[in-house]
Amino acid sequence: MELPHIIKFPKICDPRGNLTFVQDNCQVPFDIRRVYWVYDVPGDSLRGSHSHRATVECIIAVSGCFDVTLHDGTNEQTFTLRLPNEGLLVPPGYWRTLQNFSSGAVCMVLASLPYDEDDYIRDFDTFMKR
Ligand code: TYD
Predict the structure, then answer these.
(1) Is the CB of residue 115 below 6 angstroms from any atom belonging to ligand 1?
(2) 125 near 43, Cβ under 8 Å?
(3) For residues 71 and 95, what is the distance between their CA atoms, to the nearest angstrom?
(4) What letter does residue 28 receive in the DSSP assignment?
(5) Known catalytic residue at 50
(6) Sign of CA dihedral 114, 115, 119, 120
(7) Whose CA is nearest to atom 22 of ligand 1?
(8) Which CA distances in Å does 110 have to 19, 30, 50, 53, 88?
(9) Contact 83, 61 (CB under 8 A)
(10) How far is the C-alpha of 20 from the C-alpha of 86, rounded, in Å?
(11) Which is nearest to 27 in space by CA: 77, 88, 83?
């Protein structure tokens, strides 16, 4: 699997308002099996704090902005997401924390697998020892 990276989505610019889409496997390198979104997040909240064993995700700031910090067990990297026409591809095996949500921010996530609690590692020590 590839490293985490930013994916640029198509942006149809229009004076009536811009439009971005994701279709089939053209924009993300996996079949989308689930979409969820997180919103009304207080500015001092921390979301995420887990790793996935198998799920690939693409995290999109469809409104507002927030930071995503990825830890691979050795190195940490922080991405600030603020453009609705880009997404952060997160392969499995990365501990992710989402924070510094702006007012009105909406975090939409495209996921490669249905929700399954067994796919989560929610304890950081367990993640580091895996
Ligand atoms: P959680 O994984 O803690 O959210 P975060 O993105 O901050 O890590 O999920 C919160 C709750 O929502 C938890 O009880 C699991 C549930 N949930 C689902 O039922 N389906 C889903 O697709 C997701 C992502 C979470």
Answers:
(1) yes
(2) no
(3) 5
(4) S
(5) yes
(6) positive
(7) 115
(8) 17, 9, 16, 16, 10
(9) yes
(10) 9
(11) 88
Q: Which residues contact 18 (CB under 8 A, 6 or more apart)?
A: 11, 12, 84, 85
DSSP output for 78-130: EEEE--TTEEEEE-TT-EEEEE-PPTT-EEEEEESS---GGGEE--HHHHHH-
* Cα 64 → chain centroid: 14
Digits of tens for pLDDT over the chain (130 positions)? 689 999 999 999 999 999 999 998 889 999 999 999 999 999 999 999 999 999 999 999 999 999 999 999 999 999 999 999 999 999 999 999 999 999 999 999 999 999 999 999 999 999 999 8
Distance 77 CA to ligand 1 centre (A): 23
From 32, 47, 49, 107, the mutation candidate for ligand 1 (largest count of ligand atoms within 8 A of CB) is 47
Rounded to whole angstroms, how far apart are CA atoms 69 and 46? 11
